[in-house]
Amino acid sequence: MDNNIVISTPPHVKSPRTTKGIMLDVLIALAPAAIAGMVFFGWQALVVIITAMISAVAAEFVYYFIYNGGFKAKCANAGAVCKKWLAQFDFTSAVTGLILALILPSTAEWYEVAIGAVFAIVIVKMLFGGTGKNLVNPAAAGRVMMFLSFAITTYVAANFEPISLDSQLFTGATALSGSILGGNPDAHMEWIDLFFGTGLAGCIGETCKLALIIGYIYLVVRGVIKWWQPLLYIVLSAFLSVCLAATAEGATFDISLMMDYALSGGLMFGAIFMATDYVTSPKGVYGQIVYYVILAVLTSLLRFYTKIEVVSFVIMLVNLIVPLIDRYVVRRPFGYAKQVKAKEGK
């Protein structure tokens, strides 16, 4: 019997889109944030990006080479295994490496970046079966591992001075240690600096929100993500953060702070490029709504009580309950049409 036959449940929908094509679209969408990060943080950002991407791709290749017997019989099949790897290479490891680099500060050491990328690919992705089999987002897991292992908490400011004269420099994960999270009440940045990332200390790809929006629009136009998915996460999280902030002693409900919460930290980056991952997010629309609502609630709660950035932590945690969401939030069957009850007397 030929083992190449794959049996799957209907309906069977044919599409010209491939995993490789989708990943190339994601790389293109990430390019503005990567370029902005290199402009803002200099050659250190370039080193982090290159190290993460090379380490991620190399880790995938080495694992694949060993798993497929590349070293057997004195590497007699090494050439064939390499060709097979190139044929199946779908850029997912490159995307993971780039995302991991962009959610790191430019001050991260090269060996820390390499270890984080190898952990994300080998432990989180390949050990679970490779592309499409991982339980959590590999980049998020890699970032959490690096935070816990290396205590990466040093952030440098971008190379550009604040546009607004009223802005004062933050030191923290992209403006999260300032007044909106209960830190230094004198620290404040105007939304224009939060939007462009000018004078802002933070991670490489999270500071310039304009670059992230360009990537978001590209993904929506290309049909890679749905327009409402990141917006639901961002808007609901910002609104809940404002509500929580109003519970503090002497505080008042100030809806204008929603902009500060939405533009601070890694919320926008995580909502666009990490929470929307096909593998680790629910498949049905109703399940996706539940998923983004849970993300928003946990993000706002943990931001409020921990006073640090928690987006990667929250995404990784909620990824673990996605199978439960898919199980209990039942999708509408393909081709289903709601039956209309006939009126009495007819």
Q: How would you describe what is shown here?
A:
The protein is 56% helix and 0% strand. The protein is an all-alpha fold and 346 residues long. Among the domains are: 132 residues, no CATH class; 101 residues, no CATH class. It starts with 18 loop residues before the first helix and ends in an 18-residue tail after the last helix. About 3% of the residues have low confidence.
Summarize the helices and strands and which ones pair or pack.
Blueprint: H1 19-41, H2 43-67, H3 72-75, H4 78-88, H5 92-102, H6 110-125, H7 138-150, H8 191-196, H9 209-221, H10 228-245, H11 257-263, H12 267-274, H13 285-306, H14 311-319, H15 322-328
Helix pairs in contact: 1-2, 1-5, 1-9, 2-5, 2-6, 5-6, 5-7, 6-7, 7-14, 9-12, 10-11, 10-12, 10-13, 13-14
Structural class: mainly alpha
Secondary structure: helix percent: 55-70%
Over the alpha carbons, how many angstroms does the gyration radius reach? Answer: 22 Å
Largest sheet: none
| Beta-strand share of residues | under 5%
The number of distinct β-strands equals 0
**SSE pattern, N- to C-terminal:** HHHHHHHHHHHHHHH
Number of discrete helical segments = 15
Return the average pLDDT rounded to an integer. 86
Low-confidence stretches: 170-175, 181-186
Distance between the termini: 57 Å
Q: Label the overall shape.
A: globular
